[in-house]
Design brief:
With 626 residues, the chain is of the alpha/beta class. The chain has 21 helices and 10 strands. The longest helix is centred in the middle third of the chain and has 53 residues, at 247-299. The structure holds adenosine-5'-diphosphate. Residues 115, 383, 386, 390, 408, 410-416 line the site of adenosine-5'-diphosphate.
Amino acid sequence: MTAKDKIRLTLRGLRLIREMAPGYLPFTAIRSALEALLPFISIDMSGRIITAAAQRADWRELAALALLTAALNFLTTLLLNLMTRIANTRGSNFWQMQDLPLDRKIQTMDYEYVEDSAVHAKRDTIKMKESSFGRGLPRLYWWYFSTGIKGFFQVVFSLALVIGAFTAEPVPTGSAWDFVFSPWCSVLLLLLFALSLVWDVSIQAASAKRENEMLEGFNGVNRVAQYYAGLLMDYRLGKDLKLYRMKDSVLGEFTSFSETINRLFARWQKGEARYRSLSFANSAVMSGLMYVYVGLKALFGAFPVGSIVTCVGSLTQFRSGFSGLLNVASDVFINAEALRELFDFLDLPDKKYQGTLPVEKRAFCDGGDNDYEIEFRDVSFRYPGADAWALRHVSLRLRVGERMAVVGRNGSGKTTFIKLLCRLYDPTEGQILLNGVDIRKYQYDEYLSLFSVVFQDFSLFSFPLGQNVASSVEVEKERAAACLEKAGFGQRLQTLPKGLDTCLYKDFEEDGVEISGGEAQKIALARALYKDAPFLILDEPTAALDPIAEYEVYSHFNEIVEDKTAVYISHRLSSCRFCGDIAVFDGGEIVQRGSHETLLAQEGGVYRALWHAQAQYYAKETAAPG
Ligand code: ADP
C-alpha cells in the first residue's frame, strides 16, 4: 500500500464518520483548538505577571493582569465545555452506529459471501480490531482528528511565544557562556529537538508494529474464545451441554483460550512498558536541556525573568504538540491497514444488484394475471471453490399455479436447486429465465419479492409472534391469524396469553413462549403465506411435524397454496405422491420426472428404489406388533 493509498483511506474514513455523525468533526476541531489554547493563556499571562512583579510594577497593574488571566481562562474553559458537549452529543451517534456500515453490508452482500468462512473471518478481524484495539474508524474518531488539530495549534501557539527566546539579543560576558547566545547553540538545540522527536516517532512505530504482530496471533485465538463464550451464554444450548456433559469441556476450552489471550496480552504489555519508559526518558532529557538553555539566557539578562516561565512552558507544549502530530502521522500509516480491511469488506462487489429491469407486476395482489414462468435452461452449478458439480445440466419449466415436488437422496442437489431459483447463487453454466428474460437482468430485490421460502434451517426471532409472521413491526392482525390458522397453528394461538403479541422465546420477555420444532415450522410456513408471493417454496416443510399435523398440511395443501406456484422438497415420498409433477434429483441431475404412478412404474429408477426403501421400513413397522 502506497502512502497515497493510506492517506486516501484515512480521508475516506473521515468522510464516513462525517456521514455517521454530522457536525462531530467541525465541533471537535474547535474543541481541540480551544484545548490547545487553554494552557497558553496561563503560560503567557504568568510570564507577564512574574515580569511585572520582578520590575516592581504598580499593584493595580498586577491585579489587572491577574483578573485578565482569570477571565480569559474562565471564558475559554466555558467555550471549551460547550464545544465538548456539542461534539460529544454529535459524536454519540458514531458510537451507537459504528458497526452499521459493516452490519448493513453483511445484510446486503451477495449470498455466496454469507456462506464463505473466509468472509466471516474478515468480518471478525475487523470487529475485533475495532472493539479491542480501537483500530480503524474508532481511532480516527477519538484520536487522530482531535490529536492532530490540537497538535497543530499547540505548535503554532508555542512557536509564536517561544520565538523571542531564540532571537534574544546577546549579552556578551566574555566567557565560554557566550556560546549560549551564538546561533550555533540554537541550531544545535533544534537539531537535538528534531532528533528526539524522530526517536520518539520510531519508538511509537516499533510499538505499533509489535501491536500489529500481536494482533495477528490474537485474532485466531480470540475468534474461537468468542465462539465458546457464545456457547456458554446461549440458554437454548443448555440441554445439550448438560446431557452430553459438555459444560466442563466447553468451560475448560474457554478458560484455556482466555489464558492464552491473557499471556499474549501480558507479553505485549511488557514490551509496551519498555517503549513508554524510553519515550518518557527522551522527553525528560529534552525538557531538562530546554530549561537549562532558557535559564542561562535569562540568568545573563537576555530577557526578563517572566519569559523563562513562558519559554519553558511553550517549549513543553511545542514538544507535546509536535510529537502528537508526528504520532498521528505515523499511526495514520499503521491504522490504514485496519481501514483497508474495513473498506475491502464494504467494497465486496454486489454482483446480484447489477440487474436493472423491473419485474412485471403480474401477481394477483398487484392486480395482475399472475402469469409467471420460470425456466431452468441447461443449468450447471459449482459452489465457489468446490471442484464437484452440485447441479448438472438441469432443464425444466415451471408455470404459475403448478405444483412440483422435488425428491432425491441427501446431497443430490435439491436445496441447491432452490438456492439458484431464489438467486442466492447464479448458475456457473446455463441460464434461469423469468418470462423469457435471464433473471440476472432483473432488479434483485424485485425478483426476490416473487418468492416465499421456508428453508430447512429457517430462523424465527425473539419478537412478538405477529411480527415474526409479518416479518415487520407493522402487522395486519387478521391476516397473520388467518395464515397461522392455515399453517395449523390456530389452536395453539388460542392458548397464547397475549395472542399475536406473545413474544417468542425468553430472551427479553419473562412470559415469552418456548415453542417446539413443529410449532416453529408452522410459524415459518405462516410467515411464507403472509408474504403472499406468487412462488411458494418449501424445503422439507413438514420434517418437524407430527404425523397428524403433516397429514393436515398435505390434505389441505391446495387450500394453503391457493393459486401460487409451489415447489416443495421432501424426502418422505409418501407426502409427494399427491403431487402430479415430481422431479427426482440424483447426483445433481434431474434423472426422472412425472407423477407418482409413472415414476413408480419405471423399473430400476431412483424413485422406485427410494419408494421401496421407505415402504419396506413402514411395512416392517406395521408388521412388528402383530
Ligand atoms: P440436498 O438438498 O439434496 O441434500 P444440497 O443441494 O444441499 O443437497 O447439496 C448438493 C451438494 O452440494 C452436496 O454435495 C453438498 O455437499 C454440496 N454443498 C451444499 N452446500 C454447499 C456449500 N455452501 N459449499 C460447498 N458445497 C456445498
